[in-house]
Design a protein that fits this description.
Length: about 375
């Protein structure tokens, strides 16, 4: 099989699995217990937290372990809005459902998106009022791979905060980013991005599923969604999944160390695929920005072809891909991301997402384009 759906899930790396192994049986203790073996588990948990904090450029106490990206996004959005129920939240129209769904439970506005799949910064600015307490814009889109102008947005919010201080408006203004798709390939240092909260997901970076973190700056005020024993600074109660936390830290450490080389390699793979597509299927449309794009993402519209049927035909040739977000795969509705970019429902339902990974080769994309060429010619 040629697996081209790494935006949905990645295999657990062997070194990551080895790092996790002791915590399933040998060091199984509850890290909140007081006896010596449990204290060792606690030390290992905090060492994992410190490794994550290193890559984000933050204090370890600002790193909250979660059970993946969806929980992290919900805690960021609903946690802040529950703390400030009379305020509003602004998001982009291409966010993951785990941002959109909780945001829409509150006073929420949605900024416009360009045809290239990037948030319209001016539209975002116009959505921010004196009552806006939270802005959430993903770092890189999970469907079309577009990288968002976070630094520009962060600078804009910095100016608005300064204006609020002059005007005596005490409402805070936080910037949250869903960086689940970005962590393999982009810089995560939060001060360089200007963000107050960041969500990461282990299942996207060759770590275990149901692992992740939410960075929460110390000045951010939010309410927990899960109550109980007060673990994770009281923001995420429950006995910590030490194996998952250690695995997440090992995966993040590994992927950030290798990201420069992997970005270069996958850009060559992606550019080769785009070149071959243009030559062999002239009617194919590559969606999203070519300049501001993750190196592993190729999102294509084949006008007139039903994407679900094409996916079945690809699988018959040993190629696994997707029509969009795996979290929405059972939904017959056209992608909200593609709609926000201005694609017609017809073209949205003729679109395919190919996301490459560490095992993807030039030979793999050559076979992909050849099979797509055969499909389009035989129909």
């Amino acid at each position: 099989m040629i697996y081209l759906d790494h935006a949905a899930a990645t295999p657990v790396d062997g070194e990551v699995l080895a790092a996790m192994q002791p915590y399933f049986s040998d060091v199984f203790y509850n890290p909140s217990a007081t006896y010596l073996p449990a204290r060792q588990a606690r030390e290992d948990l905090e060492a994992a937290r410190a490794r994550v904090a290193h890559w984000l450029g933050v204090r370890p106490t600002e790193v909250i372990f979660t059970a993946g990206g969806t929980e992290g996004n919900n805690l960021a959005i609903a946690g802040v809005m529950a703390r400030f129920p009379n305020c509003s939240v602004t998001v982009s129209g291409i966010e993951h459902e785990s941002v959109l769904a909780p945001a829409q439970q509150f006073n929420c506005t949605v900024a416009l998106t360009t045809e290239q799949g990037r948030v319209d910064v001016e539209s975002l600015r116009q959505n921010i009022t004196d009552a806006t307490v939270l802005v959430s814009v993903m770092y890189a889109n999970n469907e079309v791979g577009t990288i968002q102008p976070l630094r520009q947005i962060g600078d804009m919010l910095k100016t608005i905060r300064a204006q609020r201080r002059v005007e005596g408006n005490a409402t805070p203004l936080y910037l949250h980013t869903d960086a689940c798709q970005a962590a393999n390939y982009l810089d995560l240092h939060v001060s360089r991005l200007g963000v107050d909260m960041m969500t990461l997901n282990g299942g996207k970076i060759y770590g275990p599923k149901q692992s992740g973190v939410l960075y929460i700056a110390s000045h951010v005020q939010l309410q927990p969604l899960i109550l109980g024993g007060g673990q994770e600074r009281g923001l995420r109660s429950g006995t910590e999944n030490v194996a998952g936390c250690v695995g997440f830290a090992a995966a993040l450490d590994q992927t950030q160390h290798m990201r420069h080389d992997e970005v270069k390699r996958l850009n060559e793979v992606k550019n080769s695929a785009i070149h071959l597509l243009s030559a062999k299927i002239p009617g194919a449309i590559v969606n999203g920005s070519l300049e501001h794009r993750l190196p592993n993402n190729l999102h294509v519209t084949l006008p007139g072809f039903d994407n679900e049927r094409v996916l079945v035909q690809l699988e018959q040739h040993g190629i696994l891909a997707a029509a969009g977000s795996a979290c929405s795969a059972s939904n017959d509705e056209p992608s909200h991301v593609l709609r926000a970019m201005g694609l017609s429902d017809e073209n949205a339902q003729s679109s395919l997402r190919f996301t490459f990974g560490r095992a993807t080769t030039l030979a793999d994309v050559e076979k992909l384009v050849q099979v797509l060429t055969d499909i389009t010619k035989s129909t």
